[in-house]
Amino acid sequence: xxxxxxxxxxxxxxCVSLALAATLASCTSLxxxxxxxxxxxxxxxEDEAVVGLSGSYTFRSDNAADREGLDVRLEAGYHVAxxxxxxxxxxxxxSNLETDAESKEELWGGLHYRYHWYLSxxxxxxxxPTVGFANFDAGxxxxxxxxxxxQAGVRHWVSSTAALTLSPMVYWTDYDAADxxxxxxxxxxxxxxxxx
Length: 196
What we know:
By secondary structure, this protein is mainly beta. The protein is 11% helix and 61% strand.
C-alpha cells in the first residue's frame, strides 16, 4: 500500500522548526547572569532526582495511513552523577487516523539514559537512548510491542527547583502487519521539570 502525501506535513515541519528556534533563543536570552542569584537556578548534581511533565504534537507515517495526535508524558530521572541521568517515563496518547474517524488510545513506557553537557550554570543539553513498550487500543483491535529510540533535549532552570524543557525523541515500534507494521515516530516534547 502506498502512502498518500499529506498536505499538513510542510506546515508541521515549519511549526517544529520555528518552535525549536524560539526555544533555543529563549534559553540563550535567559542564560546565567550572576546578578540574578538564585533566580538563575542550578543544575542537578549527584544523588538528585528530577520529575517532568510535558506534552507534544505528533505526526506519524506508517504502512496504514498518516496519523496526528496529542501526547502527555510523565518522566522521572535520577542523577547518579551530575552528567549521568537514569530514569523512566510513561506517555499517554489520543490520536486519529487521517483515513478513519475511529480514535486510538495508546500507552507507552520505558527507561532512559541521558548524558548532560553544561552550557551554563542554568542550562544543559542532553542526549541518550531509550527502550520500552507501546500498547494501543483502537476499539476493534489492540496490540503490544517493544519500542526503542533516542532522545535529545535542552533543560533550562528558571529557578532553583523548576526548569523549562524541550526534548525531541525518535521512537521505533514493530506491530503486526494488521496493526500497522513497523513505524518510526518523531515526537517533540515541551514541558516543565522539577528538582528534588
